[in-house]
Design goal:
- The complex is a heterodimer.
- Chain A is an alpha/beta fold.
- Chain A is built from nine helices and ten strands.
- In chain A, the strands form two sheets. In chain A, strands 6-7-8-3-9-10 form a six-stranded mixed beta sheet, sandwiched between helices.
- In chain A, a hairpin with a 2-residue loop joins strand 4 and strand 5.
- In chain A, helix 3 runs parallel beside helix 5 and helix 4 packs across helix 5.
- The longest helix of chain A has 16 residues.
- By secondary structure, chain B is mainly alpha-helical.
- Chain B has a single domain, classed as MetI-like fold.
- Chain B is flat.
- Classes of the chains: A alpha/beta, B mainly alpha.
């Protein structure tokens, strides 16, 4: 198995309050891992530690065989290789859709404007939003904004994608369009780590499910196993609650 | 003194215009210089390096704790001492204004940068931008847009403050008006005229600030 992401003994606390306790996870190339768990379990913090935008106090992370350095400037180069999608989209409000997609391509990857735009056009076509390139984020629906945010991350040709609750801030009728894009990505073999409450997505796309609670990784299981017979009592309880409605 | 004699003002117009030129020029330079220096100070205050942040905070709090008139005085005597040669009232005043305004502008910019959501920083960082790239490309453009009305308002205050340069015998607009008022013994005419000019220019500035802030609200 070729590991794309290796996370070893990750720990973090805010003052005396531990938010991550000795978390380890390996993600293989092309694998889709869904992280679930009750809110406040440290899922978001964990996924943000993977590319180092949240600093951890202990532990090692390697991306594609390369250690994530603690020095911010050196970490930036590795971060550029991992795409990230946020709960609240975080498109840049002062820039158009096209400018949003091109900004890091031009300033981080040093692509020419034409190259960046061509890349953006191709990806916008894939998500069916070519007509929105001149729009500002505030003129788009939540679902459209999130699809643009995914395009913005994909434009960097990432080796892996991280999703932090990508559908939690969306109106119910828009969740489908975002999940569809994510499913397609998963089928194409993108390495993905997805924090989500969408168990339907997990069943359809995930190779493995990680269950977190109170800052700990309680259980890592193959998807079918996890839903059929979770090993831990806490996971069983969580599933019964989340699948009840 | 009989009636309101407009001809006094008309005769003195070239002299008054020169004073107004100094006031406006000083305002412009202090704004541009103050913004540039203020930007550096704001970034220093927000930086991870403690000492840098403390030094910047000292600068800001120091300048904001003294009246501008005192700063103008100080620099008039201090700058020549530091440089070892006389620089003239105009240059010492320029330096004083730029440094004084930088303290105020840095606070406006800092507040603007802090008002940008943490998620925006994270998105910029996640895309591989360095800290300075994130500031330049993502955070500052948003901060400056938000803060534009406040900056214009600060500019209006600054314009009024240029009248303080009389303490080092420079002829700004207010000083010029009062010179004419005293030599021609036409105090009412000149001071009414001066008030009207200040009123017109500052109202224009305030209107611009309001425009900017309502534009911003419409854009979001």
């Amino acid at each position: 198995m070729v590991e794309m992401i290796r996370i070893n003994g990750l720990s973090k606390s805010y003052g005396d309050v531990p938010v991550l306790k000795n978390c380890s996870l390996d993600v293989a190339r092309g694998e889709v891992v869904v992280i679930c768990g009750p809110s406040g379990s440290g899922k978001s913090t964990f996924v943000k530690c993977i590319n180092g935008i949240e600093p951890a106090q202990a532990g090692r992370i390697a991306i594609d065989g390369e250690d994530l350095p603690s020095k911010p400037a050196a970490a930036a180069r590795i971060r550029a290789r991992i795409g990230m999608v946020f709960q609240h989209f975080e498109l840049y409000p002062h820039l158009t859709v096209m400018e949003n997609i091109c900004l890091a391509q031009i300033h981080v990857l040093k692509r020419s404007r034409e190259e960046a735009k061509a890349k953006a056009h191709g990806l916008l076509r894939r998500v069916g939003l070519t007509d929105k390139e001149a729009a500002y984020p505030s003129q788009l629906s939540g679902g459209q904004q999130q699809r643009i945010a995914i395009v913005r991350a994909l434009a960097m040709d990432p080796v892996a994608m991280l999703f932090d609750e990508p559908t939690s801030a969306l109106d119910p009728e828009m969740i489908g369009e975002v999940l569809a894009v994510m499913l397609e990505l998963a089928r194409e073999g993108m390495t993905m780590v997805v924090v989500t409450h969408e168990m339907g997505f997990a069943k359809a796309a995930a190779d493995r499910v990680v269950f977190m609670d109170c800052g700990e990784i309680v259980e890592i299981a193959e998807t079918a196993r996890f839903f059929a017979e979770p090993a831990s009592e806490r996971a069983r309880l969580f599933l019964s609650r989340i699948l009840a409605h | 003194m009989s009636g309101f004699d407009v001809s006094v003002i008309l005769d003195a117009l070239p002299f008054l215009a020169k004073g107004l030129g100094l006031s406006l020029g000083l305002t412009a330079i202090a704004m541009v210089g103050g913004l540039a220096l203020g930007l550096i100070i704001a970034i220093a205050r927000l930086s991870r390096f403690r000492t840098l942040g403390t030094l910047a905070a000292l600068y800001v709090n120091g300048f904001r704790a003294v009246p501008l008139i005192l700063v103008i005085f100080w620099f008039y005597f201090l700058v020549p001492l530091l440089l070892g040669r006389p620089v003239g009232a105009l240059y010492s005043v320029l330096i004083a204004f730029v440094m004084f305004e930088a303290a105020y502008y840095s606070e406006i910019i800092r507040a603007g940068m802090k008002s940008v959501r943490p998620g925006q920083w994270q998105a910029a960082q996640a895309s591989g931008m360095t800290y300075l790239q994130a500031i330049r490309l993502v955070v500052l453009p948003q901060a400056l847009r938000k803060m534009a009305p406040l900056m214009v308002t600060q500019g209006v205050v600054l314009f009024q403050d240029t009248s303080l340069v009389y303490v080092v015998s420079l002829h700004d607009f207010m000083t010029s008006a009062s010179i004419v008022a005293n030599t021609q013994n036409r105090i009412v005419e000149l001071y009414v005229f001066a008030a009207l000019v200040y009123f017109a220019l500052c109202t224009a500035g305030s209107t611009l600030a309001q425009r900017l802030s309502s534009n911003r609200q419409r854009a979001h």
